[in-house]
Write a structure and sequence with these properties.
four-stranded mixed β-sheet, binds molybdenum atom, five-stranded antiparallel β-sheet, alpha+beta, 236 residues, 22% strand, Sulfite Oxidase, Chain A, domain 2, 5 helices, 2 domains, binds the ligand Nc1nc2c(c(=O)[nH]1)N[C@H]1C(S)=C(S)[C@@H](COP(=O)(O)O)O[C@H]1N2
């Protein structure tokens, strides 16, 4: 059943994405018609993926000896440009439909129950790695701060200007965590220190690093790659 469902998903995702590759079709009378069509297809694809998403289905987990070493860095810039966040003064800012918007220090985040997972990380560019991340379940955190979990979206803004957003059902899935550690050690700057989203049910670009701001909202927040045409839901 799971296989059938993911096959169906993949077939539809391919169907929607196929014209993006080779075809640069432009109708001289309607220069943006093809674009509009593709965006409509992608929005439809988001709705289908959201409808098929089962928050009780877990992403596969792996053994410690399957962890990829070394890990693989990716960002929209090179590793030498990675911003370094001062962990002693760091505060995670909160916004949108959240009752208690007091910002959170790392100490406070570490005082909440910690979850650990060994999961596969899949980048849309065609590589995958297995790693171990630990941190706070996003569902625990959202309830703790009184976030309105009937909102459609959880959005993130990062230290490097990157931003992204996820649907609430995926935010509440138990493997979705605000990761603080990698391989049992605090995250390093290139891999998202001090706090990154680790969401193994979605592609790599839906895992924002060095998060400075988090919000619950019904206003579509988009994302750095999403706004350039990557499919927004991007379940993996
Ligand atoms: N802040 C920030 N987060 C980001 C990105 C980025 O450029 N900046 N790139 C995304 C992409 S495309 C990928 S594949 C993963 C890479 O995470 P890694 O360096 O831990 O492998 O981070 C995601 N999160
Ligand atoms: Mo990626």
């Amino acid at each position: 059943m799971i296989n059938r469902r993911s096959l169906l998903l993949r077939a539809m995702a391919l169907g929607a994405a196929a014209p993006l590759g080779g075809c640069n079709y432009e109708d001289p009378a309607h220069p943006d018609l093809a674009d509009k069509f593709l965006h409509a297809m992608s929005a439809w694809n988001d709705r289908v993926q959201a409808a098929l998403f089962d928050p009780h289905t877990l992403a596969p987990t792996f053994r410690a000896d399957q962890i990829t070493s070394p890990p693989r860095f990716n960002a929209f810039y090179g590793i030498d440009q990675v911003p370094v966040v001062d962990e002693t003064t760091y505060k995670l800012e909160l916004g949108g439909q959240i009752q208690n918007k007091a910002p959170w220090s790392l100490q406070q985040l570490r005082a909440l129950p910690q979850e650990s997972q060994i999961t596969r990380f899949v980048c849309v560019e065609g590589w995958r790695v297995i790693g171990q991340w630990s941190g706070v379940k996003l569902s625990d955190f959202l309830r703790h701060v009184g976030a309105d979990t009937t909102c459609k979206y959880v959005s993130f803004k990062c230290a490097d200007g990157y931003y992204s957003s996820i649907d609430m059902a995926s935010a509440l899935q138990p493997q979705t965590i605000l990761a603080l550690d990698f391989l049992g050690q605090p995250l390093t700057a290139p891999f998202g220190a001090p706090v990154r989203l680790r969401i193994p049910t979605k592609l790599g670009f839906k895992n924002p690093k060095s998060i400075m701001y988090l919000a619950a909202t019904n206003v579509y927040p988009g994302g750095y790659w999403e706004d350039q045409g990557y499919n927004w839901f991007s379940g993996s």
